[in-house]
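Minutes, project huddle
Topic: does the predicted pose make sense with NDP bound?
PN asked that the exact inputs be recorded in the minutes so nobody has to dig through chat later. Recorded below.
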Amino acid sequence: MTNSYIEKILKELAQRNPQQPEYLQAVTEVLSTLERVIDAHPEYQKQAVLERLVEPERIVVFKVPVEMDDHHIEVYRGYRIQFNGALGPYKGGLRFHPSVNLSVMKFLAFEQTFKNALTTLPLGGGKGGSDFDPKGKSDNEIRRFCESFMNELYRHIGADKDVPAGDMGVGGREIGYLYGYYRRLRGESESGALTGKGVGYGGSLGRKQATGYGLVYFLQEILKRHPLNNPKAVVSGSGNVAIYAAEKLQQLGYQVIGMSDSQGYILDDDIDLNVIKQLKEVQRTSLEDYVKLAGKGEYHQGSIYDGHYHCDIALPCATQNEIDARRAANLVANGVKIVVEGANMPDNNEAISYYKQHGVIFAPGKAANAGGVATSGLEMSQNAQHLNWTFAEVDEKLHQIMTAIHQQCLDACRQYGLDEDDYVSGANIAGFERVVRAMIAQGIY
Ligand code: NDP
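Predicted holo structure (tokens), as shared on screen:
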């Protein structure tokens, strides 16, 4: 990197935020693509936009005590990061997972700021969650945890203030409990304060499918520029994003040959998604039983990215830092030509460099997985108008938004004389410019 302003910001950031590796990784990834923008706009340095951009507007950390079924009490930590509100109310999911800490929350909220900007909807960036692990907990324990979490969170959110949604470990069931308790505490039905709600009480048709479907709509735009013949895809994860990405791939006639969870992965020439949904959405158990239930395929322990199979497309849809340079090399050896991120930051910066050196087209999550938050934005619009749109209307709007995000990436590359296949720079620049213009217009905040 040659830009001294960017270098200074990254150095100071590392000093001020020790022990926050994920946050530093996310900021480094974005800032290292902004050199040409910063060079072209000396006013950004005068206005200290980078200093202001990397500091969250507000961080709320709170205690979440919960009584378990056998009456013992456990104490978890809750977070809400209101990262940047220049474009609108803070918006971003809640993650319940033991790996949640301040660094993970800040990286997700930082990424969310640019992702939300790319949707062109009026949404600021935020994120929240807890180190609570919903796995293996009873329904009552989950409900009591959600209520205890909301008992503090409700002070900080609202339809025009901050609008959480789901993320890892927070699906329809958890949003239902969270929203129910919010409504009780507020004494009014403010449906726009949370998204991902059930369709019967203010939720949007198509929200459940939106991140996965949107990811594949983005992939289709890439395939128009880089066609592949009968491509085979692997999708890591088997949660909300992965299941609906695989569903859309299959609807479009692509072969999905592998899926995974935190323990292992399955390989099968034509994955039976009904079995995956049964295991993950209904039974909430491991993929290990896939072979028995589907009567076909192979199960292996470990990461799908260490396995050997032929694939052309990889959609990492599980969690952050799943793929390092070694796994990226394995994917290339397996034949991969296109990697599109469904998860947030599943590829570390070394993996991304490896793809670049080996001619793999790579699209980052902040562009490719923005369909979830975009459809949350559509849910907010429906709530504000007291209307419900049809599935087809929502899906069409989602499709248009994903196509437009893809176009913004290309336009940003063109504007700054970069290779149009550089989706990382394109997404970062397009998101950055929209946020920064709004920040500058609103004075010093
Ligand atoms: P879910 O909790 O529904 O699913 C997560 C999946 O990832 C599960 O299959 C889980 O396995 C697997 N997993 C978790 N940790 C690991 C690991 N260390 N190695 C391999 N697999 C792992 O989450 P979502 O599908 O909602 O989210 C997935 C990713 O997509 C996250 O990065 C999230 O931030 C991002 N995202 C989600 C959006 C949404 O709308 N839900 C929107 C945009 C981004 P197991 O079943 O064993 O727990």
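Observations noted during the meeting:
- The longest strand covers residues 73-84.
- Residues 166-169, 211, 237-242, 260-263, 280, 317-319, 322, 342-344, 369, 372 surround NDP (CB under 6 Å).
No decisions taken; revisit at the next huddle.
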